[in-house]
Design goal:
There is one protein chain. By secondary structure, the chain is α/β, with parallel strands linked by helices. The chain has helices at 3-9, 36-43, 58-71, 82-91, 108-121, 133-141, 162-172, 184-187, 221-234, 241-251, 254-276, 292-298, 313-322, 352-358, 374-385; strands at residues 75-79, 99-103, 124-128, 144-150, 175-179, 197-201, 215-219, 281-282, 305-309, 327-328, 338-341, 364-368. Helix 7 links the parallel strand 4 (144-150) and strand 5. Helix 11 packs parallel to helix 15. The longest helix is centred in the last third of the chain and has 23 residues, at 254-276. The relative contact order is 0.13. Pyridoxal-5'-phosphate binds at residues 81-83, 107, 150, 154, 179, 181-182, 201, 203, 213, 215.
């Protein structure tokens, strides 16, 4: 099956759902057993089956199997949010004293999680520029246990070389986790490039309609088992069946939506680069962008997010205030075009040193390019850029 067919049909279904074409939403938090033997075996996870909502649910399992199928992984586990998936991935792969190598520039809450673990739990965290492959590999070689990547990154769309970094991680015996939220499996499949774990905020493109918060982790059966124990059993960050169903529905149109997101973002990036100068526009599909050749090698499309430098904080605020079509809201990956001044919002929680390290300038705007007609998007963006 080709990828777009896979998104529509998903993997083979194992449950008897009366041949329902759309996966039913199972709201039951408990599941009864046919016999004492079966009950004990299922409850002790010796046999597959459901017994308690926090630890498994048929609707949620359907989502897990679907995303594992699309990412080409053995198994997956769904969470209440992307941060649930990230926390489970991190906490199930490190222990006291371990060294973590993570990108200097990425989603601010992931940065803060690593800072928190470094400060309170004796983890050694090195933030390094992941676009500089040699330098990153050198830091990994000093004994990393966990290597993190987010490519393309939030908000600067930085590209890291997954294959080269996976090889280096494995040489040292480290696990490589890649946050694939911005690319989605439509554009990039990190496991096929050697990564061990793939993370998603399904709140973004997988859900796709700005109406669900969820997360996913895809990996080997063994890694997923560890992440389930930490993330579901201990942290309790389980995905609700209603949320899982919304993501399942979103995924059916993932290929169609991503095609349009890619096309619109590429065109908007091109027009903005012509209008403002390429140095002010951040999009991996621009030939002028750092590591464009690596992006071309590991991605089949460059995604729906771009950033631009409006100059300063006041200019960024004026741009957002002038937008009529582009919606001023946090988050990304919905069908509607979304805009936000990054330094003042999602990345405002970083201290000044972390902001500097991440290269977040005061006037940075992130645009999640929707699936509207590109001419309408351009008209709004162009008008909002006047007299900044
Ligand atoms: N990963 C990336 C790249 C993100 O941009 C975000 C949120 O913006 C997350 C993870 C966290 O996802 P969630 O908000 O679903 O917890």
């Amino acid at each position: 099956m080709k990828f777009d067919t896979k998104t529509v049909h998903g993997p083979e279904r194992t449950h008897d759902n009366h041949n329902a074409v759309s996966t039913p939403i199972y709201t039951s938090t408990i599941f009864s057993f046919d016999s004492i033997e079966k009950g004990i075996a299922i409850h002790n996870e010796i046999e597959p089956g459901f017994y308690y909502g926090r630890l498994g649910n048929p609707t949620v399992e359907d989502l897990e199997k679907t995303i594992a199928f699309l990412e080409g992984g053995e198994a997956a586990v769904a969470f209440a949010s992307g941060m649930g998936a990230i926390s489970a991935a991190v906490l199930s792969n490190i222990s006291k004293g371990d060294r973590v190598v993570a990108p200097a520039s990425m989603y601010s809450t992931t940065v803060r999680l690593f800072e928190f673990l470094a400060k309170n739990f004796g983890i050694e965290v090195v933030f390094s520029d992941s676009t500089k492959t040699e330098q990153y590999i050198e830091e990994i070689g000093k004994g990393a246990r966990l290597v993190w990547l987010e490519t393309p990154s939030n908000p600067l769309l930085e590209i890291s070389d997954i294959q080269a970094i996976a090889n280096a991680a494995h040489k040292t015996g480290a696990v490589l986790a890649v946050d694939n939220t911005f690319a989605t499996p439509f554009n990039q499949r990190p496991l096929s490039l050697g990564a061990d774990i793939v993370i998603h905020s399904a709140t973004k493109f997988l859900g796709g309609h700005s109406d669900v918060t969820a997360g996913l982790l895809v990996s080997s059966r063994n890694n997923v088992k560890k992440a389930r124990e930490v993330g579901l059993k201990f942290l309790g960050a389980s995905a609700a069946p209603q949320a899982a169903w919304l993501v399942l529905r979103g995924v059916k149109t993932l290929a169609l939506r991503m095609e349009r997101h890619n096309e619109n973002a590429q065109e908007l990036a091109k027009r903005l680069a012509e209008h403002l100068g390429a140095e002010k526009v951040f999009y991996p599909g621009l030939v002028s962008s750092i590591n464009h050749e690596i992006a071309k090698k590991q991605m089949s499309g460059f995604g729906g997010i771009l950033s631009l430098d409006a100059g300063d904080e006041e200019a960024a605020k004026r741009f957002v205030s002038k937008c009529r079509l582009c919606t001023f809201a946090t988050s990304l990956g919905g069908v509607e075009t979304l805009v936000q001044p990054v330094a003042l919002m999602t990345h405002a929680t970083l201290d000044s040193e972390a902001k500097k390290r991440a290269g977040i300038k005061e006037g940075l705007l992130r645009i999640s390019v929707g699936i509207e007609n590109i001419e309408d998007i351009w008209e709004d963006v162009y008008n909002s850029l006047q007299n900044l």
